[in-house]
Design goal:
By secondary structure, the chain is mainly beta. The protein has one helix and eight strands. The protein has one domain (about 5-130). Helix content is about 5%, strand content about 45%.
């Protein structure tokens, strides 16, 4: 996404600031995403995954239904139709395909993104996050 969806596409982006583990997280979504969110009956679940294996991998997944999320964990309601779920994974061993085990290590609680960006481009949800 790299900010493309939030600039130059017309309309106005929406913004919310939430607090996780005592840290402020800015969540922004494009005008196109805002239009799609207003059409929803159930919240869109945005899963932010931080996986440690050979390299750190950041992934954003979108789940249309609460029952479709692969990981368990706390969900943070941003709006009535937008929910974040942060998942940290650390495999037991360095493997080509890391395990899907979710780690609940208290030391990993500090891995809270500073910002999250969400867009809806050509019928597909896209997102990114960073520090």
């Amino acid at each position: 996404m790299a900010g493309r969806g939030l600039r130059g596409r017309g309309g106005r982006a929406s913004r919310a600031v939430i607090t996780l583990s005592g840290k402020a997280v800015e969540v922004r979504w494009s005008a196109a995403a805002a239009r799609q969110l207003t059409l929803r009956e159930a919240p869109l679940i945005v899963e932010l995954e931080l996986a440690f294996a050979r390299m750190v991998r950041k992934t954003v997944r979108f789940h249309e239904s609460p029952g479709l999320t692969a990981a368990s964990g706390s969900r943070i309601h941003v709006t009535e139709t937008l929910t974040l779920q942060i998942v940290t994974r650390v495999p037991d061993a360095c493997a080509a395909h890391p395990s899907s085990a979710t780690v609940r290590n208290p030391a990993l609680r500090n891995f809270v993104p500073r910002w999250v960006r969400i867009d809806h481009v050509q019928g597909v949800w896209v997102g990114e996050y960073g520090w």
